[in-house]
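Annotated sample (chain length 185).
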Amino acid sequence: MRIEVHVHGNIFLGRGVRLSQVELALRPWLEYLDVETIAEATSIEREEPGIQFDTRERTLTICWTGDVGRSFHNQLSEALQNIGALTEYSSEIEVTYYPENGDDEFYQMFVGPTPESIHEFRRQCVIEDVTNMLSRHLNQAEVNQVTTLVNQLFDQDWAARKVTGETAASSSTVIPLHPRGKHLH
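Output written by the structure step:
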């Protein structure tokens, strides 16, 4: 069974990263698509650029839609895991699956050079989302109380990961989102 998927985001690469390194890191995704280069990984949506590497800006820009099967998510996860080692700092990639039944599935995939940087980036994203949402309904002091609690929860989570050794497990994470968390671009 084929399903349409959209992958969207920017990955910020370190100094000196070359196209050959990017393509090697993305090899699981490229092999899934049966292409050799990112230039060949075209989107089924004509107006989307696909996967583009900008050497001057040191970014990998992804705005790609394709028809995929069940193993795609694992290949994409492996590719983003591989590219984490080439990044300068963490970033988010949004992945949206559009099954025929209309129950869209949304994922946030975080990519970064270290598990710590991903954890801190995720913290920043949550603080920003919570602050934006609550500031419409509460005063600044009340919003600060909630963000303090969120920071404490992230600190506890990181401490627990250190105890279990989960911090060294990967340089990317996948978080499924509730459909109301859909981000449009």
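Annotation: DSSP finds five helices and six strands in the chain.
Annotation: Helices lie at 19-25, 27-33, 72-84, 115-134, 140-164.
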